[in-house]
Each structure stands twice: as C-alpha cells, then as structure tokens.
Amino acid sequence: MMKLSLLIFYKEYQTFLGELREKGMVHIHENTERTAEDTDLQAKLMLIRRTGEMITRMQSRNDVEQVEKVKVDDEHLLDYLEGLYSRQDQIEQQLAGLEKDHAAYRPWGKFSREMIQKLETAGWEFHFFSVPEQKYQPEWEEMYDAVIISEMMGQKYFVTVTPAGTSVNLEADPYLFPQATAEELAKQITALREESVNIGKELDAVSQDAIERLKKYRLKITEVADKIKVEDAAQHLIDEKVIALEGWVPVERETEMRSFLETKDVYFEFTRPTPEDDVPVQLKNNAYSKLFEPVTEMFALPQYRELDLTPFLAPFFMLFFGMCMGDGGYGLIIWLACFIIGRKASPSVKGYLVLGQYLGIMTVIVGLLTGSFFGIALDSVEWPWLAGVKSLFLTEANYGKYLGGYNPMMIIAVAVGIIQILYGMCLNAARLTKQFGFKYAVSTLGWVVAIILLGVLIGLPMLKVVIPEGLKYVLYALLGLSALTIYFYNSPGKGIFSNFGSGLWGTYNMATGLLGDTLSYIRLFAIGLTGSILGGVFNTLAFQLTDGLPFIVKFIAVFLILLVGHSINFGLCMISSFVHPMRLTFVEFYKNAGFEGGGKQYAPFRKKVND
C-alpha cells in the first residue's frame, strides 16, 4: 500500500469527493473518535444493521411461485416489513394468553353461561371447584349437591348447586373463569391465527422483491455512511479554507491514481507506510489459495506487515477435511452437489462451491485410500473385482503388524500434525526475519532443527533402523549447535543469563505445548473412523432389521433406513469436518506460526449503487 495525503480547497471539496468516489481506489483513513461521536453516522450504521437482519429473515421465507411487488417505497420498506413481523410477534403473545384462558374451560366441557345466569336469577347458586382426587369428599354431594364434571391429571373438577345465600365452605380451590366465554375465546384465537397466516403469506409472496430492494437500499445507505466517515476523517486547516485527507492506495494502482490527481487542482503526496501507520490489508492469492480466504477471514486478517497464511493453510485444511469426512461416498456427494449447483450459481457463491468441489475430491481420495465407501469397509467384502486391491487399503488389518498394532491413519494424522507444526514454526521464523531481522529468527529455527534431529535420533532406532556411528556424531553436533541458539541466542541484545532463563522457560513451553498440539491431530483419525463406523452401523441395521420381509417391503424399509441413517451421519460428519480443521488451523497452526492478526480490510471509498 502507498499512503496518499491530499489537500483540497474547501469550495472544490464536495466535487472532488464525488470524483474520488467514482474512481473507487482510495481507502480513506478513518477518524475513529469522530465516527464514534457522530450520531448521524451511528444512526445510518444502525439502519444498515437492521436492513441486513431483515434481509436474513426474508431469505428464510419459503419460496413461492407467486412473486408480488411490495407496495411501499424504498424509504418505508424496512419499517413496513418490521411492522409485519412485529404484528406477528404480538399475535403470538396474544395467542399464548388466549389459549391459556381457553384451556381453563377444558375440564368443564361445554356449558351455557346464559342458562346458569337464568338459574341464579331463579334463586340457585353455582360454585366451581377443583381438588386433588384423594382430598375429594363424597359427602359434599349430599351437603351441596356437588356434581363431578371431569377428572384430569389427578384433579377432580366439580360444581356445587345450592340455594342462594347458602354458605359453601370446602377444602377445595375455587375455579375462576376468564371474562370471555369459551366460544368468544375460540373465535378470537381463530381470527388471530388467520391474521398471522395471512401476514406469513404476504411476506412469502413479496420476499424476493423485498430482498432485492433491501439489498439496493442497504448499498445506498452504506454509500451515505461512507461519505459521512470521509467527512469525519477530513481535517480543516487555515481557517477551514483547506481540507486535508489521508488514505491508502494499492501499489499497483499508484500510477493510475497519480495520473488522475494530476488533472485535478489538489495537492497530493505519495509516501511509503511507516511502522506506526494502521495500513489496510488486501489479500492477494492465486486462484486456488483464494478459495480459502473465507477461512482466513473467519478468524482475522493478518496485519499489514505479517505473512498471509492463506496459501500455507490451504492444502492442510483440504487434507484435514478429507480425513475427518473419511468416506469416499460422502465425498462424491459433496463434489457432485457443488458441481451441479455451481453451474448456475451466482458469482458471489461460486467460489464457495468450487471450494466444496476440492474438499469433496480430497474426501474421495481419503475414502478410497482407507477403503470406506458409504460406510462399506471395502477390505472386508467378498467382491471379486476388489480382490487385487484389498491388501492396499490403509487399514490396521493390512499395516498394523508393521506399525506396532497401530492404525496407519492414526500414524499419518500424527505425522501430518508434526509436519504442520514445524511448517508453522518455519513461517514464524520467516515472519520474524521480515519484521525484525534474521537474528531474531535463529532461535526458532534452532527449535525446528532440534525437533527434527530428536525425531531422527529417537524414532529411527524405535523402527529398528541403525544409524551409522559417524552420522550419529554429526547429528549430535548439530543438536548441540541448535541447543546453543535456543538457550543463548533467543533474545538478541540481552545478557547471557536472561537468554538462558528465557531458553529454559521456552523449553518447558515447547515440551508441554508440542505434546498437546500433536495429540490434537489424532482427532483427525478418530473423527474419520467414527463416521465410517457409524455409516457401517446403519448399513447393518438396514439389512438385519429387514431380514425375512417380502422383497418390496424390504426394499422400501432398507431404502428409508439407509436414507435417514446416512443423512444423519453425513450431517454430523460435515459439522466435524469443518469445525476441527478450523480449530487445528486457528489454534495449533496459527500459534506456532506466530500469527497475530487484527488487520483491517482494504475498503476503498467508491460508488456502490449505479444510477
């Protein structure tokens, strides 16, 4: 990025601002204190947030064939839709109260209040009671002409009929009815339900039109908010006759911006950013790595002077997803669904679908390597065409005897984890070199070399591989050299004792942290194995539970069990296959790579709505 400083004469400021927005290249440096105090801006930001929430709510509406236009102008569309949703919420609250009142009549069945009023006029009184069954006393029937109306959930509901003025004192709870009759309550409930359904139908019918108009309206308000931010960022100099602005322009567009400014009556200056500058970030990756930028953005953008880890995490994330999904059949579904949908998808979602295709392909590869396809363990089935390849599947039965009884996928998961951790540490060394100089990265590289050497010196003998004595001494010498950098050169410029103390503390953190980080990668194997086993369980249930049924009935039953079972398993695997790779990326990999994050997205001041 190049820093752009501008001085504009106040009479030409608004005109120049419009031209700058049309150009759409300059990220204006924001004055956070002013924007936080600007009530007009805050109101616009709140309106943008409300509009976004309404778009999300409208997108969840059911698709309908009939598409209607909303008969409200853009300025009042949001209030109109919020009013409809608010009315639905009010109806829900009213229904809750009315249904509770209506339920009060349920134990008493149907009766006429008018008839009771006539009997009361004739000199009789009616009292309604409820009492637990065990506390009901039969003598009340003789004393007060009590009549049991119903018995529900351990309660007796009864009514007494006595001459007017008779005192009725019972150890029972008097039953008070709502003011409205049951018929009146039923009519109100029906009317409110119909109103709610009609509101829902209206929202469904206008949803497509409303979404399109709300998106345009949000862009329009965003333009206004951006302009206010720019005005808040402006500094008024020389009795407010001159206005100063600062912004950022990508290096590759400096020449174009310079040519534009040379035609305007403004003062401008391009300078390189200093370490104190808060420079916006614009990620630049190739077509493959760009697909994984949403993963990076979910956590945080790198700072301007940090390495963008997107291209480095991309292959690992894809591999981790495939290992967690673990089933070639599920991978085929993912690839096929993303491929079909992606052919007619809009550009805004096409990248996600292409990413889905890559993840599906990797899942197919892992599934074929491990011999898992729709829950079928391919190494255990007696299919003649698989006879020649069954011994190649990466299963414990095939390779466990060579790996001390361990499943090869567990070994691979740990090995991949160690590789990513060491890879992250190398990237951290590159970051330190870029930001502070190579001497600050020497200790980190020392740890990388030490871990590799310890793995060779300890691991190879465990695998019964003999290391030649000469080579062994060379490795010990390199290990000693690494130890010197770790304990005596971890903080360049500080004293020997300070370095040694830091080295001891670093050793403790590395020993505990490296073990925990490495063990986290075993979940890649565990999650993939669980999905494959659960898929196999549904296969077994489908055929064992239907054994003996007529062919047609069995076919339908097997199909339904497989469909429901594998749908559940597929959904669980999808969740795990996204969550755990992101955890490994954002915790283990980012930590060892020294990722700090906190970068601000490059967002040029530009026109968002076409006239």
UniProtKB/TrEMBL annotation:
Cellular compartments per GO CC: proton-transporting V-type ATPase, V0 domain; vacuolar proton-transporting V-type ATPase complex
Transmembrane segments: 312-340, 352-378, 409-430, 442-467, 473-489, 521-543, 555-579
One annotated GO biological process: vacuolar acidification
Topology term for the membrane: Multi-pass membrane protein
GO molecular function: ATPase binding; proton-transporting ATPase activity, rotational mechanism
Pfam families named in the record: V_ATPase_I (PF01496)
InterPro entries for the chain: V-ATPase_116kDa_su
Localization in the cell: Membrane
Sorted UniProt keywords: Ion transport, Membrane, Transmembrane, Transmembrane helix, Transport
Protein family membership: Belongs to the V-ATPase 116 kDa subunit family.
Descriptive protein name: V/A-type H+-transporting ATPase subunit I
Protein species of origin: Butyricimonas faecihominis
